[in-house]
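Escalated from tier 1: nicotinamide-adenine-dinucleotide holo job.
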Amino acid sequence: MKPHAAIERRGRFDALAATLEGPAVALADEKVLRLHPHVGRALSRAKVRVVPLRGGEGAKSVRTLERVTAACLELPRGSTVLAVGGGTIGDLATVFAHTFKRGVRRFVQVPTTALAAVDSSVGGKGALNVGATKNALGVFHFADEAWLCDELFTTLSGAQVREGLLEAWKMVVTLDAKAWTRWSGRPPSLDEAITIGRGIKERLVAKDPFEQRGLRVALNFGHTFGHVLESVSRFRVRHGEAVGLGMLVALDVGVALGVTPRALAAEVEQVLPNTRDARARLARWLGAPTPGELERLLSADKKRGAEAGLQMVLLTGPGRWTLAPVSAAAWRAVVKRLAQA
Ligand SMILES: NC(=O)c1ccc[n+]([C@@H]2O[C@H](COP(=O)([O-])OP(=O)(O)OC[C@H]3O[C@@H](n4cnc5c(N)ncnc54)[C@H](O)[C@@H]3O)[C@@H](O)[C@H]2O)c1
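Tier 2 regenerated the structure:
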């Protein structure tokens, strides 16, 4: 069986692309191709077919998968697939690499957003959305290599960098008490967030690669309501921001249930790099759906199944978490308070 951690290579994209051999296709974010023309030139020198795609949740669809597949039909199964983009291109490419002719020989992730570098390009998960439901279809397919090309991160906006930092904080507050202490004194640079975030996720994934031991679930801290916010905003609240806001909901739920110490929740909220209007944004988006719609979105979450009650990852201490049942009365009361804030 393939190892679950990709070989990590750091360097300029053109130097890494020069090492490619054999037939290959790159599913590439068209914005990255535009902002970093050396990427297209390096792919063309390496004779890699390029399928340009618009990054964003729309890329994670069955329709895009079909379009990409149709564009690659004559490529052999022994091809290499590269994902050159953020988490949406990475997710689509993971599903493509897994399903194209029943699975290609080699899969390389080239994360170009902070969020993808910290989180989504690690751990082998890829998924497509169905309608407004996030990640309704998905696979596990571990990348063989990850290329981290710092020059590609230079065109990210402050908001995009923050989204990656929020995912790294998510891992640190739930899983790494030492890094939590260090970071709460001095917030990390993007480079440090990428290194620490990837390391935490890789170690966790190695213990529970296919999410069978209930360990990977820790990575869902902030995701229960994060996914709801993405859906109710029709993806106008982007994934990283949604997770940042979802962590605030999880902190409030944890405090309401007596699971998360109030002082810890306040400390975490203070250091999370959410925007200053985070609670106002939460009020806006949580106030939008009816309780019935919220219920439906929560039960569409793939991690629950229709029969189970709501379960959420909650903080119990610095670097410590639990998966706790949350009654409808409890989450409704928290949502009501947040929506009225
Ligand atoms: N598979 C996993 O384990 C996992 C984990 C976390 C998140 N995700 C998924 O990742 C997705 C979010 O990823 P994302 O935030 O990277 O989104 P994204 O792929 O939509 O990228 C965000 C935006 O950044 C642009 N972009 C990409 N690279 C750029 C660059 N170098 N410079 C400037 N702009 C650039 C894109 O064109 C896009 O507009 C969500 O769909 C989420 O569900 C998956």
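Residues 29, 31-32, 35, 55-57, 60, 85-89, 91, 112-113, 115-116, 119-120, 123, 125-126, 152, 155-156, 160, 163, 238-240 surround nicotinamide-adenine-dinucleotide (CB under 6 Å).
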